[in-house]
Amino acid sequence: MTQHSPRSGLDRRQLIKGLGAASLLPLLGSVPPFTIGNQHAGQVVVAGGGFGGATAAKYLKRANPAIEVILVEPAEIFHTCPGSNLHLGGLRSMESIAQGYDELKDHYGVRVIHASVDDVDPTAHTARLSTGRELKYDRLILSPGIDFRWSALEGYDETAAQQVPHAWKAGAQTELLRSQLLAMEEGGTFVMVVPANPYRCPPAPYERASLVASFLARYKPKAKVLILDAKDSFSKQALFQQGWEELYGDRIEWVGHSDGGRAIRVDAARREVETESGTVHRADVLNVIPPQKAGTIAERAGTTDDSGWAPVKPETFESQHVEDVFVIGDAAIADPMPKSAFCASAQAKVVAAAVAASLEARPAPEAYWTHACYSLIGPEYAVSEAGVYRVQDGVIAEVAGAGGLSPQDASRTTRALEAEYAIGWYNAICQDTWGTKA
After folding, report:
1. In whole angstroms, what is the distance from residue 143 CA to residue 284 CA?
2. DSSP string spanning 287-312?
3. What residue stretches are annotated with the Sulfide dehydrogenase [flavocytochrome c] flavoprotein chain central domain (predicted)?
4. C-alpha distances in angstroms, 1 versus 67, 85, 334, 392?
5. DSSP 43
6. Do 296 and 282 share a domain, yes or no?
7. One domain, residues 167 and 278
8. Could you say which of 187, 230, 258, 297 is the most buried, measured as most Cβ atoms within 10 Å of its Cβ?
């Protein structure tokens, strides 16, 4: 991600706090206010009920209550990836990151079907569900998140993930990794395998390593964390490494690609990882985050390219390949915006405005997006990054000077404030998306 020089002092903290809370009020600062109307209403199917899909469904109904909005999501209770690292670190319960769909159904009139969209016929404008049912659509919004490239890392597939969890989709995998951490013997090593870009939430592996180290420091003080990385640099690297040194000393070791950190083979039964340098690392708990691609339905709908991700039209996020199909969130190619919950929400609001306008034969409002990303390094120690994005010369571009990073060498008071803002951000975005209060 592009990084700018950080702002300093109160202005910087006010910017981050504003992006984390006030900008989640009605539109997250993403698009002009919607005009409520009821003309030319159509039917919109939304596939995926995470931060992108649920937000898109809600804001479509806010744009025009006469639009028939159908949200298709397999899970009756959706566990968010943001917050799941806190659960691994023993700082948050799974119940606290569980979201439901009652507000969307009862307050906004969104029809929610608990199934998955398995196929799309763009000519007939139909979406076929896992139940066999077909839904007609005037517009289709895909927010399927990620799937994994199971063949990309030798020895790591869906079966291996039941022994060596990825926990990159929150829920059962998160609980499995948590149980392994609890059972790990004192003096053991937690080994994490991190893929090359792009993947869901660039700083999340390093937040996970931090909060695992926090847990180990409290309960297994002789244990260590080893990060094997397919990259030579990572998001907020200097801030993370400064925090690691302050809080954990040498408990966390990061090995980048050039130093032999890229994994090429996994033996799940033995909990071993071989890197391309030929070194074999044995873990007491092994967490493998595999290479990723757009959720499967994005590919089946014809929206992805050879990269495995879905290119979109910057102004509206309509697929570049399939008319009347829009792709948001992790599945979309939206560089330089990261694949994050905040960006998925911001994109959803732009798409809701664009889809509502298209159904009324109006031009889409001018699009812009904001982004704020908090990473907890300890329970009372967080760092952040912010950005603002617009369409310039036909592509999405970061607005120079509008964002930046937390200041290096900040006081513990500042880091503690950012930790408070991180929790406030999570509570605010969940309330904005699902209407829930933590």
Report:
1. 36
2. EE---EEE-HHHHHTT---TTSSEEB
3. 174-290
4. 36, 21, 11, 17
5. E
6. no
7. yes
8. 297
